[in-house]
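Problem 12. The chain below contains 96 residues. Write out its predicted structure in token notation.
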Amino acid sequence: LPEIASGAPSVRVGLKPEGRAPMREGIDLYESEAGGEPVGRITSGGFGPTVGGPVAMGYVPAEQATPGTRLYGEVRGKRLPVEVVTLPHVKQSYKR
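Solution.
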């Protein structure tokens, strides 16, 4: 009931990693490039051929779910920037 009244503490968001390296399931998300505790986690990700680059989805705190928010995903010991984007990653081009 508290979540219905005040909203969920974490939200599923689309993520667009910078560069060409895909970020897969289980990668922790951080607020800063160095130090700190994880604030979220990637639940799925890979290469998006329509987007022409890597795409991912994950859960972050509601206050960091605004499109354009910059977070960092730790891949092989190095933190790489990701941007919160709206879902779906590609606008629909068909009519219902």
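Discussion. The two ends are 35 Å apart (CA to CA). Students who got a different answer should revisit the alignment rule from Section 12.3.
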